[in-house]
From TrEMBL:
Protein known as: GTP cyclohydrolase 1 type 2 homolog
Residues engaged in binding a divalent metal cation: 65-66, 104, 330, 334
Designated gene of the protein: yqfO
Gene Ontology MF terms: hydrolase activity; metal ion binding
Any one of the GO CC terms: cytoplasm
Amino acid sequence: MVKVGDIVAWMDEWARPALAIDGDPVGLQLGDPEKPVTKVLATLELTPAVAEEAVARGAQLVVSHHAVLYRPADRIREDDPAGRMLRRLIQADVAVYNAHTNLDVAPGGVNDQLVERLGLVDVEVLAPTGHERMFKLAVFVPVDHHRQVLNAVCSAGAGWIGGYSSCTFNISGKGTFKPEEGANPYIGSVGKLEEVDEIRLETVVPADRLNAVVDAMLAAHPYEEVAYDVYPLERPVKTFGIGRIGSLAKPMALKELAVFIKDRLDAPGVRFCGDASQRVSRLAVLGGSGMGWAEEARKKGADAFLTGDVKHHDALDALAAGLPVIDAGHYSTERWIVPVIVAYLQARVAARGALVEVFPSDRIREPFAFV
């Protein structure tokens, strides 16, 4: 059986809450983490139409990129569209989880999907927001409990390297121990030296998951006293951040690039500001509303900046600073994360061997029409 809390834990392994920008509400916003789940709806955002879709299709959980509660709610009223939507979800017992800027920052998240769709190379983080400290966990496990402990630590957040999960290294060997008076051994007898076939299981753990991973390991391990080591890693820490900057497969004129972006993002319309003939080799991207990071893009040497929700005066400021801007809209720069969420959760469900249907919303749309 899969519960709401399991889906939340899986999403948090990918888009860890610690990656979110300060003040951004992420995580389970509505519902009971202990509620069983058989259907999950994934969406870019939760609108009244999407809420009705979730209820009609029998979803027990909605996984959204945008928060349903972004600012503290001081009322939930039937004569208010947002209040009516929340009441409908509560009455139908539909839980709501969101991963916002943590999913923008996370490997394989919103901005990496833009990079992939546009074929950028030599990619780096646009605006660093933090650095990840990593630890190496090594634990000695009897052979018959190896898979159980491995699954436990990886489910708790260990074993992630880039876009790969459950990364471990395992070495077989002989463990020795002699239970003394007062011990209650899982294997062996008091006063007798034991030699046991064991596996040394090694994996990497980010600092913010270390306590949870160790707790999961201890709970899954059969020994009364578990032999394990935790090492701080001295390798260069990984930098996390918002946005990406990379090189186009081939330089393009600004107008040509705008047309290319429109096609690759299947956007109903794209606008740009700057010299249409200016050559662009290095492109900065930030899905959603990214003009707050335009100066970072300029400082990083971007020839142009792709984002959405560009305001008039922000565009003028960018032009004055010598940075052309391409606005493909909020929806078109973020929508590509939804099928990725679906595929990720489907893979986690399959690995569990559970029967949970994960599907994208078919009610979410670009709110603007173009003429």
